[in-house]
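The instructor's notes for this session suggest beginning with a concrete chain rather than abstract definitions. Hand out the sequence below and ask the class to guess, before any prediction is shown, which regions might be ordered.
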Amino acid sequence: MKGKLLSLGLAGVFAFPAVAEMGGNSSVVHVKKAAFHLFTFEDQNMALENVTLPAGKSTGYHSHDQDLVFVITAGAKIKNQILGKEPVELEFKQGEVRFAGYTKTPGTHQISNIETDKTMQLLAVAIVYPEPGRYTVSTRPAKYEVALDNDRVRAWRLRLNPGESAPAIRQTAPGARFVVAGGTVAEKRAESPDQPLVLKNHDFVAMPAEERGIENIGNTPVELVEIELK
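After discussion, reveal the predicted structure:
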């Protein structure tokens, strides 16, 4: 329910006017051409937007036409400005999971980092296919905390202290992992040796439907956000 409320609350903040209403503003670009946006992954389900916005910089006006789920990996105070409206100041906090719906209502905005010494970073997955209901997502044990849940995506947060592990899950839909706080983990799969991995803050990994467990084998806490698409 918390995830649903967060999604609904953001609808007003990110409910941008449709591209058709822009009046031919030539300074507006598609999000794939936006300043400080790097697209590094795309398949038939999702496209990754990797955003690193230095202090004092702006993305410039850019348009969106696909639903987004995004995770803040380095927080900062920002101003979000809908085209034709006054900017709204927000604080993006590290680890937050947010959703903005654009598939039915495309829109345009710009984000400015108003900090003097903090870089803002986020990882966003644009959902490529337009209609919900393509996949059925899994349920996960209590170690995984639901961070967001709507008709397009379910997101979980997983925190593991050194030596802790999470019970095995059976992921049933295509998904992704976002690293909020990195460390050394071991992936555990039946009939396979454990797979040690070094995860870094702001890492992204596409995660296929499969059964797996995970253990923190390092000496620092690890925080992950994992999603499955609907």
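Then share the key points. Helices lie at 2-13. The chain is about 5% helix and 50% strand.
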